[in-house]
């Protein structure tokens, strides 16, 4: 690799807000960053002469902090608009500064002339004027957020900044320094409206009372929930299992986080808070919509009747399925006695289940009505309640699955152990590995006998297990879609999407440069500088969706291979359900 | 000669084309392009003398270099010429004639209509993603902007700031039966006060038009001239004689 050359550094970049092009002549004021040879113009002092030198100096001295100094960087000449120049030094600039430049307005793009002690190699041709819209920059959350993140040490940034961050930072500094109270009689054109983005868009002072009440309620609830009574493991397990309570807990923590974050914080944080709040608001609206849909007419009654019919159908189909397995299912010959035993066992269970359904029948309609009414608290709550209802209605499938899985798992365990005995090996629990072992003849005899029995009984058990696993997976798929819907509703960046549609200036992320060419004839030989226009481009939708707010990892808890191996071994699987809700580790 | 014309590398800082052009648009009087007889300077418009455009056909792409009257800014555009609209139009007309002859339009009008709509939608979608031109705007001390222009006029651009750019190089990808050359930007993280920046990412350019090595060399030289101090750069003879 060749040694790294240094990039060209003798180019002066002047960032000029577009608003300046319409202003009258005056002095340009801004921040100069020597190390990066950049000048950011932040304001225009509309003074006709430099006779007010004293007052300008006093005004500028107000705008000094330990690390930054706003200085006069140049002169703006606008001789196209007809006004009296009033003795203004057009052709004899004599500012008592070390170095400065003069920007002259031509028909379309400004021209620049350097004066003073610039580095000798720098001529007018080495000047690049970059025009941008200061208002749009100031409105952008991301760009101003990056400017706030800039760390400065003794006036110089620790890391070299990109130009856009530099300009945003200069505007920020200027605004901060401009807040300091010094009233002088100087007409200044600030290119951005002061303090505009400090004004909260959604947490105004009028809502502060409501926020105080909410915060008080939240503190009470958190005090109650952290009491020793409720920190019990049993209570945690009981509240963790149904989807509803965990959903409520998540909503609660979200809103707490939002309301407790300080108001005048980082703009990107405020954007995300707005996302959360608007997301919940949208949630509640959708829930209300669904509620109105369900309560209109007697939809709940019809729905509950349909659900009971469906449950009865499922029971009937299950019974048919079990009778089919008692015969010769799909041409497989199963062990008759075991088959009959298992079948009778499951049929009795179904009989119990039909009794349970009879109990549930009158309550169903009311339950659905309550679910729809809970839409006041949000669509995600309704979906969670439906998820819980589904789990309750398919409890028998879950029970069957657990029985069959346990039986199969037990059989597999015994088979693997006896298989090892068959080969003359043993599982060493201490070292967690397979060791060779010597067995007596009677041990071997008994072991081989048991192994054979279990091996030939395996197809029956495996078939029952396979059938119930499939049923369970179907139910889990339904639950999974509901769970996924809830997650999507939670993590949708509603506010930012809305901003993209309605106010794209607020979420601009990058820039697009375009070289401006003068349309008028330029005499050959006159030096002129390069003029570039910088436009702000909104962030793309894909980058919006890739950001995660809560740090909620939506990574799957199972990979395909681990899932299939758990299924084959007979271990209980709980896909699509968050790990903390599993109240029993898989054995 | 036309295919092997190349810049002979003897550039020094004072060479520019703006002072030496004749208004009739003839070739430059030898400052930059010694021996390159196929280069035409036709950017001398009557109104704007601010930039000069140089167009050159290399292989199946058209390379357009815009010199923005400044040492510090150049724009390189690669236009892919493989899409020939007249050929496509004649093909479509021929197919329509055949269809008319075979009386396809009387078979099942509704089905035909639906198929036609589907094909037109697919065509519009395909054209939306077809890249017609890729351009590179290099500005010294500001950065590099990469723009793609699609067939329906849409553009999408990406800007890399100079603090993120380490270098621009021609890289080789060696497959089983050919070597592919591509121009790439080496991106780095912003370095701190004293440490050397590390190259963290490669950003290949011109991924849709795939210009040939000769074209890439021209672009490379131009980019190096704009971004780095050119006095040290082009002293050695650039001796690429690959066909």
From TrEMBL, chain A:
Pfam family name, one: Gpi1
Any one GO cellular component localisation term in the record: endoplasmic reticulum
Keyword entries, A-Z: Membrane, Transmembrane, Transmembrane helix
GO biological process: GPI anchor biosynthetic process
Descriptive protein name: Phosphatidylinositol N-acetylglucosaminyltransferase subunit Q
Bilayer-crossing regions: 277-295, 368-389, 395-422, 443-467
Source organism per UniProt: Ridgeia piscesae (Tubeworm)
Domain of life, source organism: Eukaryota
InterPro entries the UniProt entry points to: PigQ/GPI1
UniProtKB/TrEMBL annotation, chain B:
Listed transmembrane segments: 85-104, 111-129
Domain of life: Eukaryota
Pathway: Glycolipid biosynthesis; glycosylphosphatidylinositol-anchor biosynthesis
Gene Ontology biological-process entries: GPI anchor biosynthetic process
Domain Phosphatidylinositol N-acetylglucosaminyltransferase subunit H conserved, chain residue ranges per copy: 135-206
Gene Ontology terms: cellular component: glycosylphosphatidylinositol-N-acetylglucosaminyltransferase (GPI-GnT) complex
InterPro entries with a match to the protein in the record: PIG-H, PIGH-H_dom
Keywords: Membrane, Transmembrane, Transmembrane helix
Signal peptide start-end: none
Recorded family membership: Belongs to the PIGH family.
Protein name: Phosphatidylinositol N-acetylglucosaminyltransferase subunit H conserved domain-containing protein
UniProt source species: Ridgeia piscesae
